[in-house]
């Protein structure tokens, strides 16, 4: 799935079937359901989920927690906009599909 194809699914009522946890969490985050997104990444111990977990805590303003999850993911702390980081994560993860 391309990043643009993934982005187009956010207008739907449900995420595409078979999405990996990290992508599903990003989908729910884009829909404004932080709690559902957070639940997904809390139950996924992958580095991709840790990256999304960092992004989610950054969104809520919990930067100390976000820094922990960036370290866990092996990613640098993002300093750009949340939208730019969402796009970056999608570009990386969608390429793995």
How are the SSEs placed, and which strands pair?
Elements: H1 3-9, H2 21-30, H3 34-42, H4 47-60, H5 63-73, H6 82-95
Notable characteristics:
97 residues, mainly alpha, 6 helices, 0% strand
Average pLDDT rating? 94
Helix count equals 6
* N-to-C order of helices and strands: HHHHHH
Helicity, in percent? 55-70%
Percentage of residues in DSSP E strands: under 5%
Number of DSSP strand runs: 0
Largest sheet: none
The CA-CA distance between the termini, in Å, is 6 Å
What does this structure look like?
This protein has one domain. It has six helices and no strands. With 97 residues, it is an all-alpha fold. The chain starts with a helix and ends with a helix. The mean pLDDT is 94.
Short description:
By secondary structure, the chain is an all-alpha fold. The chain is 67% helix and 0% strand. It has one domain (21-95).
């Amino acid at each position: 799935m391309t990043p643009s194809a993934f982005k187009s699914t956010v207008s739907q009522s449900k995420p595409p079937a078979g999405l990996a946890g990290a992508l599903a969490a990003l989908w729910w985050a884009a829909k404004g359901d932080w709690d559902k997104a957070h639940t997904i990444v809390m139950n996924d111990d992958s580095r991709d989920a840790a990256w999304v977990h960092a992004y989610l805590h950054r969104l809520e303003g919990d930067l100390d927690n976000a820094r922990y999850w960036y370290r866990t993911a092996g990613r640098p702390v993002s300093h750009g906009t949340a939208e730019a980081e969402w796009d970056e994560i999608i570009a990386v993860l969608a390429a793995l599909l």
